[in-house]
Amino acid sequence: MQLLKSQNLFPDLLSMALEAVPIPSNSANSNQYDLYLSLNFNQQWFSLLDGRIKIGLKGGQLKLKLKNSQLDEINPQLDDYFEIITPASETEPTWIFTLKTPISVLVDSLQRVKLGTIKNTTQSPILQATWNVFPADVTLIDAEDLWRHDLSPNKHGVLERTIVFFLCKNQLSSSLSRTQLGFSNLETKEIGEEVNKPKIDFPAQDELKQLIQQIYTANTDEMAELVQLAKLDLKTDLAGANLLATNLSSLELNGVNLEKANLRGADLTDADLSEANLGYVNLSGADLSGAYLENANLSNADLYRASLALANLIGANLSNANLQEANLSNANLSRSILTGTKFGKNSGLSEVMKLNLQQGGAKETISSE
Question: What is the C-alpha to C-alpha distance for residues 43 and 21, in angstroms, rounded to an integer?
Fold first, then answer.
């Protein structure tokens, strides 16, 4: 199979390449190929209003669509990088590979990672791949000349999310990268045309400018009120957000999606986070004293030196979470999932509680006090 089309809209931010390598066989007409993926991540500046912003990615989604071919085998080692979904489709089988990473910003590359083996079923196979990002995948690293930096952490976090949602709607809405493999006998219409970079119109820019001003001058620092001003949803739109040192104390956040968010040093005392998605969240140094975390997903979360004193973690999923040096005084961990959980030097950890953690699958990685 040959490369028919490749386009990276913002190559400084992300570039993707796919390669189909024929598998040697005794037959002169082998129709099986090993499929390899390469990704390069970096950071990029964008002009915005009277200033500019720098963004990076912490993830994204590869959508692989096959026509007249099929994915026979998927590389089992992909579990280290991706969550894999196979939506039902009889005419054009599609696989979705969602990058899973706890890293705040990717400045890295995956070189020739084998996705699997594909087999052509006709003489005119087509393989189309796109890389898409969503607000939870985008991090605002820096902003210049958009607002003064005498902001509270709450306002700063909401302003950053506002910018990210604006970008995802107006500039990053199209696939950041597109690749098509096949054979040169395909008609031009099957190959498709190049996609132009989206342009931001004046009304959209004016609306953003007003939103920034409203949030900046708001007479409140309450997170729920600021999020409402930004026209965002508190329960769904803070996934991936940079909420460093924010104050979310006593907030009703049951069922909230905060996956991959940065909550380092945040105040979450007495917050209701039951049933919340806190997978891959950075909660190092955060204060969750008295927080209600029943049945919350905290898998792969970083809770290093966090306070969980008096926290309710009944039924919480703490698999592969980092609890090293966390304060567990009077925390309720009954029925919690502790497979691969790391703990050590935990204040408030009794010998009985320590034994229960170990029996549940947790691993002591530092000598406990």
Answer: 30
